[in-house]
Amino acid sequence: MLLTFLKKPSMFGSNMSLDLDIKKQIIVIGQKLAKRGMVAGSDGNISARLDKTHIVITASGKAKGFLTVGDLVIVDMEGMVIEGNCQPSSELAMHLAVYHKRPEINACVHAHPPYATSFAVVGIRLEKDILPEVVVFVGAIPLIKYAPPGTEAVPEALAPHLEGNNAFLLSNHGLLTIGRTLEEAYQRHETVEQYAKIVHLAHQLGEIRHIPAEDYSRLDELRRQLEKYPSDND
């Protein structure tokens, strides 16, 4: 997918009130990420689907804790800027890959939460069968091979793992979580970071115990059933 940041004439005719509401949600999530210490400087990027052919994404180089409406850019599904005076995030291709592959997904949150990113840096997977809450509300968390940030290699590395997963550890990079709503994508970010912290501490105390296989199957099926329910964006 070749992305161009040239701005084409605005023919965007979506619901402006709804668009503004989504932009405000992105601003709030940026503030939450900063408050929780999951981003520093201009780290991270957030996006949301506006309709079938447009998304809104944070601009490149903007501190997520201090976003304004002017720091958000609307692009089409090929990466062409439709609205906004800033360059979209350098990770736009990663976000678009998610929306192309997963039509039910409406939001992406990428940041560098310390504990989760530490696992990504040392190349240790977060196992899927330790905490029931993670099984039910997130699911498996694949470790994605290293790809230079801001390049097409990132969505290419992500592609084999997109189907059926909601959180991804990006080697030497950070964490990506996705959801049917911005709030769901953000909550998954919090959940994975808390999980990584618990696993880190547990390793220092002793051997980690896993959920029994039969109950893991029950919890995993519960997650699948919950994901069938319509979200606020459907």
What ranges have pLDDT less than 50 throughout 5 or more consecutive residues? 1-13
Number of domains in the coordinates?
1
Reported for the largest beta sheet, the result is:
8 strands, mixed
In round numbers, the mean pLDDT is 92
Q: Provide the CATH superfamily.
A: Class II aldolase/adducin N-terminal domain
How do the strands of the widest beta sheet line up side by side? 4-3-2-1-5-8-7-6
Question: Roughly what percent helix?
Answer: 25-40%
Q: Please tell me what the overall shape is.
A: globular
Rg (CA only) = 17 Å
Instruction: Assign the CATH class.
Output: Alpha Beta
Helical/strand content category: alpha+beta
Distance between the termini: 27 Å
SS field, number of helical segments = 7
Describe this structure in words.
The protein is α+β, with helices and mostly antiparallel strands and 234 residues long. It has a single domain (17-226), classed as Class II aldolase/adducin N-terminal domain (L-fuculose-1-phosphate Aldolase, 3-Layer(aba) Sandwich). Helices cover 38% and strands 16% of the residues. An eight-stranded mixed sheet has the order 4-3-2-1-5-8-7-6, with helices on both faces. A hairpin with a 2-residue loop joins strand 1 (45-51) and strand 2 (54-58). It is globular and about 50 Å long.
